[in-house]
Amino acid sequence: MASITIEKTKYECGQPQQLNKKWQREDVLRKTGLCVGKVDVYYRNARSDGCLVPPIRQTASIFKQPVTVYKTQEGKVKSDHKNGNQEKPKQLMWEKRLEGLRACDIDGHEFEAMELPKGLKPVGPNVDEETIIRSVATALHVSTQPVTGQTATKTLLEKNPGVFLDPKQPLVHAVNISDDDIKKQEERVALARKKLEEALNM
């Protein structure tokens, strides 16, 4: 490929009239190449680069004092790296969206409502027993942590449930399980196993 020789000529800009005197016109004449004799016109701003001028301290002092600039932060965006599984935020009281809906069997008959133990007390505005059942059942089947209920005090939960409710726990107050409750449950399990054994032997 043939080399291109150019000749530059600089002079003050008088035209076009829209440009002020700070702009300089530069004509570049091509001496070699395919476009010999062609003139390229460039307009350049002759202003000084502000980045090369050191900053001046703006104080009430009569004498201007130089300022030294130290860059302490890099212009890079730091991403927040979190270890482990990323959980999506959970909506508070999502169980209330299912109020008024009942499950049905194949024939279209509604299932009977379940009765909860008397120790379970609802938490939140207008929370009925069906909502509690959905909340507790979901926590038992989905949650990977112990199901304890809402641990905040009753006063705080009634004052502002949207702030003090734990979305990872069901909408019931904290339940204290005693030794008598465990004993009664063991008796129920033993009785259910006995009935199942009798039914299988028939």
UniProtKB/TrEMBL annotation:
Methyl-CpG binding protein 2/3 C-terminal domain ranges (all copies) = 108-200
Boundaries of every Methyl-CpG-binding domain copy:
45-103
**One GO cellular component from the entry?**
nucleus
Q: Name one GO molecular function term.
A: methyl-CpG binding
Please provide an example of a Pfam family that matches this protein in its UniProt record.
MBDa
The protein's superkingdom reads Eukaryota
Protein name as it appears in the record: Methyl-CpG-binding domain protein 2
Source species taxonomy: Eukaryota, Metazoa, Ecdysozoa, Arthropoda, Hexapoda
One GO BP: DNA methylation-dependent constitutive heterochromatin formation
InterPro entries this protein is in?
A: MBD2/MBD3_p55-bd (IPR032343), MeCpG-bd_2/3_C_dom (IPR025884)
